Please model this.
Amino acid sequence: MPTTTRAAVVESGGAPFTLADVELDEPRAHEALVRIVAAGLCHTDLGVASGGLPFPLPGVLGHEGAGIVEAVGPDVTGVEPGDHVVLSFTSCGSCHNCRDGHPAYCAGWLPLNLLGGRRADGSATISRDGTPLGGHFFGQSSFAERALVDERSLVKVDKDVPLESLAPLGCGVQTGVGAVWNVLKPESGSTLVVLGAGAVGLSAVMAARLTPATTVIAVDKVAERLELARELGATHTVNAGEADVAEAVLELTGGRGADGVVETTGSVAVLRKGADALAARGTLVVVGAPPFGTEVALDVNALLPGKRVVGLTLGDTETQTGIPALVQLVRDGRLPLDRLIGYYPFADIDQAVRDMSAGKTIKPVLTFT
Model:
């Protein structure tokens, strides 16, 4: 039988989130019904809600859910009712990259997660008054009291860690951490630069502190965020509103440049500064996503000394192993996500959006009673 639940619906691009009753399809093969306890708000949600991406609206967004499994469909083997789960992206599980342990680069990633709004077979997961809505967002659409979730989006986690503190792991945190651990892999004495001290950037700073890197430079325009970056592990900070980023990095590194740069802002101007700040054989990891079709000009000759520019999706994380490791770090206090989170009741989702857009809250997390 379908399940009626309260959800935050975006009616059209640029419209606010509106709470409404919707119907969830019953769990099919490899799906589970999850009671949402908390859901992180991410810039990707805001980008889709603004109409910046061709996701079908009206629809239900949300892709950093955390909750408790209530029911499972046929063939589900990884979880059972009562399990605590973090929800992340989905993937097909059968393409070359999925089989190779890189589900974030699934051949069907865009339609399955970001643009399709339905299951792979075209069927809807959410409807309202009999009319299908855009759903299946990252295999979950977790801005709702209950969500119908792909099994490959589900990650079983320890019940001893509060789910409210784990919701951001599904996207933003694993992205920042993965940029450092899975791509840059700092060696002893490395220099890392993180461009942007939002949730993704500060996650990268915290991850860098757990590596042999000895110099971690955080860059932002907001003094308070730079101070927090220092508290979370940055050894140096640069205020981009007061200094040229590339020149400042070269000065801090004795003219050598950075071994690794993580670009989280989505600004092509900032991306270019990051490329200019690279040392020979350095790597720039592009995480921030500007509008589709955006291009950036790079000095080709400056790249010839072995410099690399690498795009990244969701930290290139294999979620079934990566997210439980992050949960353990949160539990041990070595990944203090609480320093980033501001909690909002689900009914106050629009206030959370305003505070995030204004920079008042780094990582809003919606809570469900």
Observations:
- Residues 185 and 211 are 8 Å apart (CA to CA).
